[in-house]
Amino acid sequence: MHRAGEKIRAWREAHEPPLTAGQFGERYGAPEPWPSRTVYGWETKGKIPRPATQRRLAELGICEPSDWLEPADAPPSPDAKGSESVNERDHPFYDMHRHGFVRVATSTPRVRTADVAYNACAIVEEAQRAHEAHVDLLVYPELSLSSYALDDLVMQDALLDAVEGEIAGIVAASKGLSPVMLIGAPLRHNGRLYNCALAIADGALLGAVPKSYLPNYREFYEKRWFAHGRNIRGLTISVGGDEIPFGTDLVFASNQLPGFRLFAEICEDFWAPDPPSTAGALAGATILANLSASNIVIGKSDERHMLCRAQSARTASAYVYSASGHGESTTDLAWDGQGMIFELGDLLAESERFELRPELCIADVDCDRILADRLRLQTFNDAAEAAGRPEDSFRTIRFDHAPASGDIGLARPIRRFPFVPNRLNRLGEDCYEAFNIQVDGLMRRIEATRPKSLVIGISGGLDSTHALIVAAKACDRLDLPRTIIRGYTMPGFGTSDETKDNAWKLMKALGITAEEIDIRPSATKMLEDIGHAFADGHPVYDVTFENVQAGLRTDYLFRLAGQHGGFVVGTGDLSELALGWCTYGVGDQMSHYAVNAGVPKTLIQYLIRWCTRTDQFDAATDEVLGAILATEISPELVPAGADGAIQSTEAKIGPYELNDFFLHHVMRFGQRPSKVAFLAWHAWRDAAHGLWPAEFPEAKKNEYDLATIRHWLENFLRRFFAFSQFKRSAIPNGPKVSSGGALSPRGDWRAPSDAVADVWLEELKAKVPE
Q1: 452 contacts: CB under 8 Å, gap ≥ 6
Q2: Model confidence over 71-124: pLDDT tens digits?
Q3: Catalytic one of 211, 473, 601, 767
Q4: N or C: lower Cβ tally within 10 Å for the chain?
Q5: pTM reported for the whole predicted model
Q6: Which of these is catalytic: 63, 196, 267, 361?
Q7: Active site (annotated) includes residue 763
Q8: Is residue 142 flagged as an active site residue?
C-alpha cells in the first residue's frame, strides 16, 4: 500500500457527493478513462500506474510521483493533524522494526534480452530505489541478470562469463544499501548449468540456490539447458573466484532483525506437488521468495494468486513472488511482471501488471505474527518432525545488512475492524456465514432439547435484537411457529422510552409472543431488603444498584423458561465477555444457550445491517432494525441525568471499535501490548487515511490519538487479564463464529481466573510513550 492510493481515495471521497471509482476514472482519466478496477488497484492493492498516469494525477493536484514510493502510513509533517512532536517521534515505539516487521519488495527491473551489462545496471538502480524506500528484502525475477527467454544463448560461454563478471559489480554496489537482494542468474558447476537465485547483502555474496524443478512441457524446454538442483545440499560453488554456499538447504538469517529468515525457490518450484519452500518453512524460514519468469497467458494470474495464497497459508509464512516483465523476448511468449506479497494467506500488496517502466511492489511483513501463528499451530511442528526436522540439516547463512531505523511508517493494510471485512463482497459472504453459524447452532440445540418455548429478554439494544432475529430464523428453518419465542421486555430504572418502544415494535414485527414485566417494584423491594441507600431516596447508582436489576431480569427469564417448558437464549456478545461487561451468575452472563458468545460487538452491527440489506425479514422488521442500529449503546441501568444524557457503556469501558481491535490482536496472536498500540495508532490516528469497511457511515468514522489508545488499552488489559476470566470460565454453550477466536474455556481460550495483568501493563508502560 502506498501514500498515493490513500490520497486518490481521499480526493474522490471529498467531492459532494463522493465520486465512485468508476466516475473518477471516467471524468479524469486521460488519454482514456481509467476502469474502476484500475482505480481500486491503486487504492487497495498497492498497484502503481505508468509514468504518464502519475503525471496526470500530479497535474490534477491529487498526488505526486514520489507518493507512489511512500508507504500508506508515512509519517505526516510535524504540523499535520494528529501528529506528535518531532522529538516524540524519535521514540523507539515508532520504529516498525522494533515490532517485528520486515519491509519486503518485488522488483520488475528494466531488462534487455542477452544484454547482461544493461540488466546489471537495472538491478542496481532498483536496489538504490528500494534503499530510498527503506526496503529490507528485494526479490527480482528469475534469471534477471541474463534475461530468461534466451533459449540456446544461455549456454554460450561469453554470456556466462559476462554474468559472473557483473555479479561482482552488483555485490560491490550493494555495499551500504538496506535491502538484501535476491537476483536470478545462470551459474556453471562441474560441467552443468544451474538456474540460480543469488542472495546479496551489504557487499557480500551470501549463497546460491539452484532451481529444483525444471519445466519441460508445452512452451517450456528448461531441461535442454539446465540441470536440476533438488538434491544439492551441503555444497559450495565458485562465483568470480569465491566459494559460496550452494544448495537447496540454505536459510538466510538477518543478524539485525531476529524474525527475518529467508528461503528462496524459483518459478516452477512452487507449481510442484511438494514445493522446496515447504521444507524451507519447516526449517525455520519466515519469508519465502519466488524468483519467477512465468510467461503470461489468460487465467495464469489467478493461478499464481491461488498458489501464493495457499503456500503462505499452508506454511504459515510470507510468500513474495516476482515475475518477469516488459523487455523479455516476445518471440513466442509475453510477460506481465506480476509481483505479489502474501502473509498467512492474506494479500498485502500487488504490482501493476504489464507496466513498461521499472516497478517496486512494497509491503511490510509481520514476522512476529508468523512466528506467533506457528507457535499455536502444533500441526506445523508435527509436520517438521515428520519431515525429519529440516532445521537440523539445513544450513543457516547469517548476514549483516543496514535496515533503516526510526519512524519509516508502516506499508501495510491494517483493518480497523479485524472482525469485519473491508470489501463489500467479502462482507456479504462473512455475514452470511456468521449469521447461519448462529442459526444452525441454535437449531441443533432446539432439536436436541425439544423445548416448548425459547425465552429471550428484549431490551431494544443490539445484542438482544440480534439474538431474537437468530431465533426467528431458526424457527423459520425448522418450520416452527415464531410464537414459541417468548420475548420479555423488562423496563428498569434507566430504561428509555426509545429502547422500550423499539423492543415492542420488533417483537410485534416478528410475530413472537411478547410480554412486559416492570422490574422496578421488585428491584426496589430487593434494594430495601439489603439496606441500599437508593431505597431511602438517595441517588446512589453503584454496581449493586445495577446488578440488582440485571440479576432480576435473568432470574425472571430462568423462572419463565421453567414455567413454559423452554430454555433461555443468551444475548451477551464476545466483546462483553472479553471485558467482563456482564453480571455473573444470576445475570446476563448466564443462559442456557448463548448464540452471540462468538460474535464481537462491531460485527453484530454489520450482521443486523446485512439482514436488512438481504431481505431476511419483512420491511416492517427492517425499519425497526434500522432504528435500533442508530441507538446509543447503553446498559440503561442508571436513570438519565438532569440533562437527559443516558448511561453510556463506551464512556465507561472504552469504544468497542478499539476494544475489538485490541481483543483480536491479543487473543488471536498473543501480541505484546506495545505492538497492539503501534498497530492501533497506525489504523486509527487519522480517519482520512486507510480503508473503512464498505458502506461505513461517514459520521461514525472516528480517529484516536496515541494517548487515547494507550489509555483504553491499559483499561482493556486490566479487565481482560486480571478481572474477567472467572466469568468466561463458566460461560454457557454457544458457537464459535470467527477465525479470530472465541473465549470459551472449552475452545480457543483457556486461562486461570486468578491471574494478574502486571506483565502486560508493565510492557505497555515501558514501551509506549505517554
Answers
A1: 484, 564, 565, 566
A2: 765 444 434 444 455 556 789 999 999 999 999 999 999 999 999 999 999 999
A3: 211
A4: C
A5: 0.87
A6: 267
A7: no
A8: yes
